[in-house]
Amino acid sequence: MAEHDSSQYYVPAQSPWPIVGAVALFMIAVGAGNLVAHLSRTGEPGWGRYVLIAGIVTILAMMFGWFRDQIKESRAGLHNEQLGVSYRQGMSWFIFSEVMFFAAFFGALFYARMISVPWLGGAGNNEMTNVVLWPQFEAIWPLVTTPDGTQTQAMGYMGLPLINTIILLLSSITIHFAHVGLEQNKRKQLFWMLFVTVLLGCVFLFLQVEEYIHAYQDLGLKLDSGVYGNTFYLLTGFHGMHVTLGTLFLIVMLFRIRAGHFTVDNHFAFQSSVWYWHFVDVVWLCLFVFVYVL
Amino acid sequence: MTTVTTANESATPQEHEHHGPEKGIKRWLYTTNHKDIGSLYLWFAFIMFLTGGAMAMVIRAELFQPGLQIVEPHFFNQMTTVHGLIMVFGAVMPAFTGLANWMIPMMIGAPDMALPRMNNLSFWILPFAFAILLASLFVEGGGPAFGWTFYAPLSTTYSGDSTALFVFSVHIMGISSIMGAINVIVTIWNMRAPGMTWMKMPLFVWTWFITAFLLIAVMPVLAGAVTMVLTDKFFGTSFFDAAGGGDPVMFQHIFWFFGHPEVYIMILPAFGIISTIVPTFSRKKLFGYASMVYATASIALLSFVVWAHHMFTTGMPVYAELFFMYCTMLISVPTGVKVFNWVATMWKGAISYEVPMMFSVAFIILFTFGGFSGLMLAITPVDFQYHDTYFVVAHFHYVLVTGAIFSLIAATYYWLPKWTGVMYDIGLAKAHFWCSLISVNVLFFPMHFVGLAGMPRRIPDYSVQFADWNQIISLGGFAFGLSQFIFLALLIKACRKQGEPVDAKVWDGAEGLEWEVESPAPYHTFTKPPKID
Ligand code: HEM
Ligand SMILES: [Cu+2]
After folding, report:
1. Could you tell me which of A73, B306, B380, B512 has the fewest CB atoms within 10 Å of its CB?
2. Is B458 one of the annotated active-site residues of the chain?
């Protein structure tokens, strides 16, 4: 791979990292598969946890190595404009796939609220369902009493959830200004705005944990508290995982900015971290409306 | 498609050595070359096809006679489940991805796929996913036995510990498909040679573009479905349990929201292949190129609003039944447009029946037949009779085996000389065609009869009245299975370059950039964008 010339195509060279990643995913799947099954059968984690941890470590190493190579090549000027466009399009489609992943859980939430719970309560032509199966069951949302009688309390939107919403909205603004800073080559603004964004992300995560503790201890709202608790924890949980990943992503960006990476017209990684962060934010807004408020 | 001429700017010999493949196993493990990765996908798919086929042989052996003969019912269920999963996710989808890898860059004048390293990753995680799935057959309590559709509560309340392995292996398959699809869509969007405008793209490229969109849209939903199965089974959630306010029918909605687009994922690239082969051997331009593109797009869009035709008997409200019935019937209109266009392309053409064309014509007739049985199933009131019988099995095997698989075989016979540089053994190919054609119909046609007469699917035993036809079906099945070894022999011969060397343009009526580069196609096809007018 010699010097590049934009009338030529550029094809990245071979790399050992993908196969390392494949092995890592294999370990994660086998480890998690064993762990989950063992846990539910015996209440104790089996050997699976070691395989799982090894897999996670391997995949982190893979990402580190892969991206390091990638950054080296990019900074050596090997990549051309076409590759940059490919990366951006690839990232956009990846985010679209994430949107669809959340759509599945939102779909489950809507189905439970609009269809399965009302039907269990006898709506439509389902009166016999109610009478025969659970005559004492009343269809209300949030579902604080399930048909088989599991009790819980609903999580309101005031307090922590509202504060978290404000925090995430703020962070979307700060990251936007970081981006503007990069585009106008104001490196200080870039760094500090991004720094604030990372802080806000961490605070969000901290408060989210607080909220879970509150839910478990004070409200008795648990993962297995019926379909209200299920959708609550899976939606907020997967969102929280995405915030965690996004924050890590931003922290890496901070270090790279410190190291002098990214220029006005070459900052794909930074840009995708911004997109990702906005995506996480939008998901939260939907969550706030449909899980907490309505 | 308009004619394409190109100043063939393949690499000079020196450059060639510089960029040539690495030696040994590293070439395959580390590769970023779309042709290497395409070959890996295709061979992997073929191995999975034989593996899944072996399971089908177990099923047909058990069903050869009424009564329990050979395997335990629980094992029988594992065979139907894993057969379906392997054929869908291990054979058909990777085979199409393999073709996309090999052909799309060549067809649009690109040097490679847009994201070559991710391309390697998306292939190499697949063998691991299937290793896990197959290994789960050997864990205590057996492998997945709830059908490829893993309906709750079969997959939650009544499944074994191996469900966790099943869930994670499906996750990996999904990651692989999504990465593969992102690569395809970005390649097509961003890597077309200058002058290759959207409406000049070969139809195989178009259909894959739309397929990739479908994949990115629905594979994550499948991931969501398996995740909910996992938490329902192991973490006490009740998404699919009415006692906790959920609903087992909700599983079916989520699954089929993925599942119906999925069946189009398995057939749209096939449409592209047939639309490529039929004009070549009819020596005419494809009839109605633009209408083909629009038909493909409308099939893809409609495929998001027909999912509940798999659930007519679940007790949905009548307006929902009607909505899904009409939408399903609507989707057969663009499908009909396609069949019409293929036939119109052949009309008054100077047709010759080379092997790819033989498979394509068989495709057109037999796929259409599957479409007709689909229409019958789409009629809600009659589906109450047909649902979960062998009639459904007949329907989807006509569209998938004589549809998707036949198109894959046709594509292989069409492009194999381009890949290997030699003409394959045509005698063997014809034998493969006739053996497959006859046996596949002996295998699947009588399933319509036993299905209409009420024989349920996925049951290891049956009432004696179905015995005669089942014996015939099983014989057809064994014959079809054996016929594929002819294909295997042919492929091995061709890959060892036993045969007449071929020119760049293997078929005189063929059009497209892939026929401008020499055969076998050089390791790197275009180092500079080719010129297209
Ligand atoms: C004219 C177009 C089509 C129509 C109207 C149609 C309609 C249907 C209907 C109504 C069912 C549900 C039957 C039941 O379970 O009672 C069904 C099942 C099925 N169809 Fe189609 N179909 C069409 C084309 C296709 C194509 C192109 C494919 C795949 C390449 C396909 C694959 C399947 C599969 C795999 C199933 C069964 C899934 C299962 O339950 O395991 N169909 N089809
Ligand atoms: Cu369908």
Report:
1. A73
2. no
In the block, tokens 């604080």 appear at: A144
Residue type, A70: Q
Report the distance separating Cα B307 and Cα B364, nearest Å: 24
Measured N-to-C along each axis, helices B426-452 and B390-399 cross at an angle, to the nearest 10 degrees, of 150
Please list, residue by residue across B323-362, b when 16 or more beta carbons sit within 10 angstroms of its beta carbon and e when fewer do.
ebbebbeebbebbebbbebbebbbeebebeebbbbbbbbb
Look up residue B222 and give its two tokens: 């499948």
Domain spans of chain A, in order of start: 14-78, 91-293
pLDDT at A139 over 90: yes
CA distances from B185 to A94, A292, B109, B180, B188 (A): 11, 37, 15, 9, 5
Question: A226, B245 in Cβ contact below 8 A?
Answer: yes
User: How far apart are alpha carbons B398 and B476 in whole angstroms?
Assistant: 14
Interface touch A33/B167, C-beta < 8 Å: yes
- Domain count along chain B: 1
**pLDDT tens track for A11-40:** 778 889 999 999 999 999 999 999 999 998
- H helices of chain A, in order, are 17-42, 48-75, 81-111, 117-120, 127-133, 160-183, 187-214, 226-258, 268-287
What is the residue range of B75's domain? 34-515
Residue A264, burial from CB neighbour count under 10 angstroms (0-12, 13-18, 19+): exposed
B381-417 pLDDT tens trace: 999 999 999 999 999 999 999 999 999 999 999 999 9
Residue type for position A195: F
Residues 6 or more apart whose Cβ sits within 8 Å of residue A261: A71, A75
ipTM of the complex: 0.94
DSSP symbols for B140-197: TT-S--STTTT-TTTTTTT--TTHHHHHHHHHHHHHHHHHHHHHHHHHHHH-PPTT--
CB B185, CB B212: distance < 8 Å: yes
Q: What is the mean pLDDT of residues B444-458?
A: 97
Residue B526, domain member (yes or no): no
Euclidean distance between CA atoms B240 and B248, whole angstroms = 4
How far is the C-alpha of B317 from the C-alpha of A114, rounded, in Å? 13
Instruction: List, for residues A160-218, the tens digit of each pLDDT value.
Output: 999 999 999 999 999 999 999 999 999 999 999 999 999 999 999 999 999 999 999 99
* Closest-CA residue to B210 (of B300, B88, B276, B331): B300
Catalytic residue among B28, B124, B148, B523: B148
Q: Which of A31, A25, A23, A21 lies closest to A51 in space, CA to CA? A: A31
Closest by CA to B521, choosing from B412, B425, B423, B415, is B415
Does the pTM surpass 0.90? The reply is yes
Q: Chains A and B: how many Cβ contacts under 8 Å?
A: 236
Query: Which CATH number is B95's domain given?
Result: 1.20.210.10
Quick one: fold of A91-293? Four Helix Bundle (Hemerythrin (Met), subunit A) (1.20.120)
Q: Which residues line ligand 1 (CB under 6 A)?
A: B 149, 263, 266-267, 309-310, 328, 332, 335, 371, 374-375, 377-378, 383, 386-387, 392, 395-396, 399-400, 403-404
